[in-house]
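Work Package 4 report. The design task specified in the project plan requires that, given a folded chain encoded as structure tokens, an amino acid be chosen for each position. We show below one input record used in the internal validation round.
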């Protein structure tokens, strides 16, 4: 057994840690893989038949390329921070924010009703999430399911089962979280704390999407790795019921957007409201995930992905400010 340390390019968040480890551990020659987001490295242990490190890195990179990652022996030069992309991202994000405001004013989309956030908000956040790098791990699950069942000549039905189970389970599990909030009887102070926590998580997500401040990546919270790693492992099984199970388990993947909506569902204190919140979020993510299932979307290879992610980051920061404003409004701190 040999142990090698490689540098990983294309890392963004904790979802990337999970994806690289699970994909590498599926390789026959690899026994274990341990990825470090801070140093952007991975340590792999396995039987490589005495090959040199460069050849091993090239071979292992083949399984990561479709997800936008690559391994190298030497530390790659630091990625330029591309502040110039903000020149395009800011007007794009501003146009979208103004469009949301215009639709709200026209009564076509009720993002906020009085002191209450409507279901349009989690739906819009779901759309943004599905187009950002933070949902890469769910796209990886979809790709794994496609590859597994395509070998048996039946790739469509499992994906339909996956998406159906995912949407239904988000409603049910979101309702459970909402009911738990009711059981805890969150007071006004506790509700304010939860709402501010939601805004903080989304603010951190937005900053990470800007890809201008690398030190913030390690601050992003995530589900326990032992739980989320089971989802990718399960997606490679061929049992007929596996797609439904995986669809349910995506509720527990390390996606900050999902976690912020779960916190919001908890603050509702209602099974129905919590369930509809998570349902709206899941429906918002569905169109892009469906295109990923069909092989029509590969955001990792887009030449303008940096501009798009920065625009998404600005939108998420705006949503964070909106949630903080709503929390202060609901608590009566501001009028």
């Amino acid at each position: 057994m040999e142990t090698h340390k490689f540098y990983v390019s294309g890392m963004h968040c904790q979802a990337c840690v999970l994806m690289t480890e699970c994909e590498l551990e599926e390789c026959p020659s690899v026994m274990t893989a341990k990825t470090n987001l801070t140093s952007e490295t991975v340590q792999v242990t396995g039987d490589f038949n005495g090959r040199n490190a460069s050849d091993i890195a090239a071979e292992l990179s083949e399984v990561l390329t479709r997800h936008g990652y690559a391994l190298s022996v030497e530390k790659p030069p630091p990625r330029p921070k591309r502040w110039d992309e903000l020149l395009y991202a800011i007007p794009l994000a501003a146009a979208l924010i103004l469009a949301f405001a215009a639709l709200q004013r026209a009564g076509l989309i009720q993002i906020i009703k009085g002191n209450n956030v409507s279901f349009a908000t989690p739906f819009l956040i779901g759309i943004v999430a599905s187009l950002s790098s933070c949902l890469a791990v769910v796209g990886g699950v979809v790709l794994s399911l496609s590859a597994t069942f395509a070998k048996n000549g039946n790739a469509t039905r499992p994906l339909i089962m996956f998406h159906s189970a995912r949407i239904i389970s988000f409603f049910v599990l979101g309702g459970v979280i909402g009911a738990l909030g009711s059981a805890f009887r969150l007071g006004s102070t506790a509700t304010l704390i939860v709402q501010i926590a939601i805004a903080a998580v989304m603010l951190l997500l937005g900053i990470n999407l800007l890809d201008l401040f690398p030190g913030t990546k390690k601050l992003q919270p995530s589900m326990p790795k032992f739980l989320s790693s089971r989802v990718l492992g399960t997606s490679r099984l061929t049992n007929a019921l596996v797609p439904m199970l995986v669809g349910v388990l995506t509720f527990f993947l390390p996606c900050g957007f999902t976690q912020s909506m779960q916190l919001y569902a908890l603050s509702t204190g209602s099974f129905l409201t919590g369930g509809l919140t998570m349902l709206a979020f899941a429906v918002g993510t569905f169109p892009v995930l469906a295109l990923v299932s069909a092989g029509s979307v590969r955001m990792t290879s887009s030449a303008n992905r940096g501009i798009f992610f920065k625009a998404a980051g600005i939108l998420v920061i705006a949503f964070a400010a909106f949630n903080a404003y709503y929390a202060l409004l609901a608590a009566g701190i501001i009028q």
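Residues 2-72 form a domain with the Alpha-Beta Plaits fold (CATH 3.30.70.100). Validation will be extended to a larger panel in the next phase.
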